[in-house]
Amino acid sequence: MATLKEILTRRPVAATIRLTVPSGGARPAPPVGPALGQYRLNLMAFCKDFNARTQKYKPDTPMSVTITAFKDSTFEFTLEVFGVGVNVSEANNRKSKNIFLSTFSSSSSTPSLAVPTHEQIAHLILDQKSAPQVLQTFEWASKLPNFIHSQSTYRALIYKLLTFRRFNTVQHVLDEMPNSIGLPPDESIFLTIIRGLGRARRIRDVIKVLDLVTRYGTNPSLKIFNSILDVLVKEDIDLARKFYRKKMMGSGVQGDDYTYGILMKGLCLTNRIGEGFKLLQAIKSRGLKPNVVIYNTLLHALCNNGKVGRARSLMNEIKEPNDVTFNVLICGYCKEDNFVQALVLLEKSFSLGFVPDIVTVTKVVEILCNVGRVTEAVEILERVESKGGVVDVVAHNTLIKGFCKLGKVKVGHGLLKEMERKGCLPNVDTYNALISGFCESGMLGSALDMFNDMKTDGINCNFVIFDTLIRGLFSRGRIEDGFKILELMEETRGGCGGSISPYNSVLYGLYRKNMFNEALEFLMKMENLFPRAVDRSMRILGFCEEGAIQEAKRVYDQMNSEGGVPSALVYDCLIHGFCQEGRGKDGSALKLLEDMVGRGCEPDTGSYRPLIDALCRKRSFEKAASLLLQMVENGITPDYLIWNSLSHCLSQQTIWLEGKNMFRVHNLVEDIVEI
């Protein structure tokens, strides 16, 4: 147990770095320079100490170095050369050095080297960063006293050579093995070659490995055939099937469950589901029983292609389905928004003792939250936990979003406390869900509190949170607070990341508060950030003011085609312009209102007023009344100008309150008058 002094003097570690550096060859260049430089360590001090401590070794002897980098930019490093330990400490602005520790033999003044194990040499080879270093290390190990290479060290050498695409060198290495270690390459080496060629996508060369195996006097095993087949199906399923028929079956190799599983995977990856069913029947016709992996592969392909019902029927053939079977089908039903069948299968999986993985459970929770059945989602997560499952932060976030969607933000906030109590720490998405929920519920004080709690917990705010908070504050008239958050976003994130959304929220807030001059002034300030968007917006506003509404619409269409996002100011001016031109009835202005809502830009009284007035002037009272109901349901109170337009339109009608909408308008009038 550490003493109090050791605990108090312990330095916080920034990182542990492992390198292979030749004795006497440390330089402030790769690999040493980049590795140490990123932690602001003293490169020259390390190189000087390392070279001094390793000068007694034969030059260019590979040394395994483990460097502990501390947060105060000091470091310690340990050297290992198979039994020799070295410990050096260095601290900035210190002249003292720890004593060099090593193991010496009684008859020699140089460190004694123990014979390294094959595992140690293989590990050293795998640590090298280039083909020349790999070959140099292998050659160095060959000259060590009493050391003889083995299949494992040759396998490591071949793996690294394939990684560096030294394919011709691999052949020379294979040829020297019988003379070097007295044995031909074993199966593990051929498997390494197959996988290495597969990673390099040298498909034709992969097939030639069969000839390579027979060249060294052995017959290819089923494992080698399967490994080749596994590489082929990822690149060319037709070539893989040809290989199976001609090479495998032609050699009398029938294959096993793994073989058929590989073929099924290849067929399903290319959406050849019909041929997958034929393969399934072929397996059965040979008296074999397809395993659950083969079935699951076909189930997954069916669900991905929207054939969940067929997948469910196929499931009945599986005598012993596993957890993956249920995961695949439940996710398939969730993808189709069929939460009833998803719940049926979830219940069945519980009854069989399976607990679906958290990804599947989260999808069920999400689909339930989307239809407002949040209480059932809570019960499912509780059952998963009671059966030993772990509910992660994503599942909790999904549930919190569900409560926020129902307007129960405080319940969602309670879930935050509950997940923290369980040891599941919230992330930026958790806070974003709650901040968004508080903003939509008009609880801006709570949203700002969550924002401050987030900073206190050390979680960095992303753009989405800033955007959500700015939109919430400005849409609710909290102009001063909104500008503070905007300023903080620009300071901490260096701007908006190219998104105009928060700035449009500012314009929208200013416009709703009738601060037209301030809105135009802010729009001009945006020109440095979004010159094209500001130019388009100013041109639209100018054309609208001149009455050239068609020119304004042309610029608007151009802005949309370029991916621009018009502000509420632009939408309101266009709607007003179309209505003034007499197009309220033909749908142009209504289409703009729909587009405005679709882009997340909330309309206000000024957006609806010209539309309702234009419709009333054309005696389209039912459409005008429908818009009135829409704005009231969205929490927007009609002003006296809107009521004047409706009253005048009604006075022109022979029957005042005809139809359902008429009664609803009459009731709305009474309610608003009472207020």
Automatic annotation (TrEMBL):
Keywords (A to Z) from UniProt: Repeat, Ribonucleoprotein, Ribosomal protein
One cellular component (GO) term of this entry: ribonucleoprotein complex
Pfam families for the chain: PPR, PPR_2, PPR_3, Ribosomal_L11_N
Superkingdom of source: Eukaryota
A GO molecular function held by the record: structural constituent of ribosome
PPR repeats: 186-220, 256-290, 291-321, 322-356, 357-391, 392-426, 427-461, 567-603, 604-638
Domain (Large ribosomal subunit protein uL11 N-terminal) ranges: 17-75
GO biological process: translation
Xref: PANTHER family: PENTATRICOPEPTIDE REPEAT-CONTAINING PROTEIN 4, MITOCHONDRIAL-RELATED (PTHR47938:SF35), RESPIRATORY COMPLEX I CHAPERONE (CIA84), PUTATIVE (AFU_ORTHOLOGUE AFUA_2G06020)-RELATED (PTHR47938)
Family: Belongs to the PPR family. P subfamily.
The protein's name: Large ribosomal subunit protein uL11m
Lineage of origin: Eukaryota, Viridiplantae, Streptophyta, Embryophyta, Tracheophyta
